[in-house]
Design brief:
One of its GO terms (cellular component) is cytoplasm. By secondary structure, this protein is an alpha+beta fold. The protein has three helices and four strands. The protein has a single domain, classed as Histidine-containing Protein, Chain: A (2-Layer Sandwich), CATH 3.30.1340.
Length: about 90
């Protein structure tokens, strides 16, 4: 299992556009489960409505975890995605 913590920089937080892109990026790693955790809530990276339901705002800290066969590649891709989009 690999993980990293990221502080959201996007002025709107995780809203529809980046959430959709995040789901698309997470689905590329079918053999690896990617999850996001904010506070005591954890959701799968492939569940759009649940991701948006986390209510992640600017300045919030989220922990991204990847567990599975491609966890190294998945966590690297997620870290790059967050830096570029959120």
């Amino acid at each position: 299992m690999k993980s990293f913590t990221y502080v959201i920089q996007d002025p709107l937080g995780i809203h529809a556009r980046p959430a959709g892109l995040l789901v698309k990026a997470a689905k590329e790693f079918a053999d690896t489960e990617i999850t996001l955790t904010k506070g005591d809530k954890t959701v799968k990276g492939t569940q759009l409505m649940k991701l948006m339901g986390l209510g992640v705002k600017t300045g919030d800290s989220v922990t991204v975890t990847a567990e599975g066969a491609s966890e190294d590649a998945a966590i690297a891709a997620m870290e790059q995605f967050f830096k570029s989009n959120l």
